[in-house]
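Fold Annotation — chain and its backbone
Next Lines — sequence and tokenised fold

***
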Amino acid sequence: MPDLATTFEQVDEQLQREQKAPDAPKDVSDGKVEEPAGPEELHKRSLLEAVQKLHYMMLEFCYAANLIGAVHLYLWPHSALLRKLAFAHMAGPLMWAIVAMRNSLVFHDFDKITTLMMHASPALVAWTMRWHPRPEWTAGLAPEQLHRFEHAGWLEMGVLPMAFYAAWVLGYYTLTFVTLAQRMHSRGYSNMFTYMVLREQARKSPLARLVLRAPHALQPAAYLGMHMLASWLAVLPTKLLWDHFWLHTLLLIAILLQSVWNGANFYFKVFAKRYLQELQARAGGKAGMPSKRE
């Protein structure tokens, strides 16, 4: 069975043979409307990322956390350990990523809607599976097993999830900054490190400035260290969310409303810009018309 690095090399080679120059992602500001995203759009997004040399984004933690949730729900729904592990990541780092990354509910922008869905859908699933679990998940469980299924301690919610995170960090660093680093650099492939730190537009952000202060060789480790700290801070409150229905519900609503607010601001800026352009076009047209006296 080929290892993961070999698999990515094969994907890269296939893309080099089949890749065509892609058009830039459509934005609502260009006047064209894209179809709204649904669950199947994640597959389309992965194909789009591959064509745009962004397919290494699929190694990021949000994909791994979504995978843990899918494994729990579809393969081992009776597992109390997987239930808490999935909850901690989906109600922790993934949910708070909506705020940290300013995810926006913009229906006509494929990239924005799928990015929001990748973080908001797991957060909603975490709420549903905690407070409205399916009866078949607990059918046949002994009282002790049922107690473990419904109750969680600080160790289970604050420490064990970070063990999974640490395993992901080790694999991610080995693949993207060691094994495949030369291939990614030579072919212009991007990941979140290049997007959040090395991009010209991102270099002025507080995160980028902190990371770029480190020696060049240590910058990936510095970035992942900050990523790990932020994820742990997001995981810690999940014990309180697990225990308190109204706290979990109100926080989830507030964060989802934040994405609506971000989307409203986006639409306002786009429509205001378009309106200004129309006014300028009308003014320019009138200026170029001969007057009646002439």
User: Anything to note?
Assistant: The radius of gyration is 23 Å. Residues 229 and 245 are 26 Å apart (CA to CA). The chain is about 70% helix and 0% strand. Confidence is low (pLDDT under 50) at residues 18-38.
